[in-house]
Amino acid sequence: MQIQETLTAFFTAENIRDWETYKTFLHPEITWKLYSAEAKTIHGTEEYLAYITKAYENTDVRFTCNFMEISADNTRVIAYLINDKGERSLDIFDFKDSLIFREFEFLLD
């Protein structure tokens, strides 16, 4: 699976809340740095899944990827996302062993 297809499938799993499939895209040593009003760092798949599932509790919000750019060496992707509420984020994904190894998410709204 190409990196763009991998990330698209990851986004689809998130939007339909298929956490079992979602987890398969995460490297065991995943680090997610989330920048909003305050910075937060999440380590490992279990902490990542706990945080993301809590974020989606009691909401059916979905998002789309409006733009994706892949690095020349095929290990980094930037994605511009917008959800149903119009909230935007810029995400940078680093891949290792064909899995998401690091995510830097900047919430813009």
UniProtKB/TrEMBL annotation:
Superkingdom: Bacteria
Span of domain SnoaL-like: 8-100
InterPro entries membership: NTF2-like_dom_sf (IPR032710), SnoaL-like (IPR037401)
Protein name listed in UniProt: SnoaL-like domain-containing protein
